[in-house]
């Protein structure tokens, strides 16, 4: 599935460093970390 949408998120310096370190540890991009967390969200209508 092609990813065509873009979201801009503001983070603190500490939050950005945390996700950068985790992504580097796993050998993936920061986007992949966020995409994986989104997949864990329940599929409920709000």
Summarize the structure.
By secondary structure, the protein is mainly alpha-helical. The chain is built from two helices and no strands.
Overview of this structure, please?
The protein has 46 residues and is mainly alpha-helical. It has a domain of 29 residues. The chain is 52% helix and 0% strand. It has two helices and no strands. The longest helix has 14 residues. The model has no long low-confidence stretch (mean pLDDT 94).
Give short descriptive properties of this protein.
46 residues; mainly alpha; globular
What is the strand and helix layout of this fold?
Layout: H1 13-26, H2 30-39
- How many helix segments? 2
How far is the N terminus from the C terminus? 24 Å
Radius of gyration: 12 Å
Biggest sheet: strands, sense, closure?
A: none
Report the order of strands and helices: HH
């Amino acid at each position: 599935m092609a990813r065509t949408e873009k979201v801009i998120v503001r983070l603190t310096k500490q939050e950005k460093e945390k996700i950068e370190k985790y992504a580097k540890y796993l050998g993936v991009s920061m986007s992949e970390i966020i995409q994986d967390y989104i997949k864990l969200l329940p599929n409920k209508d709000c």
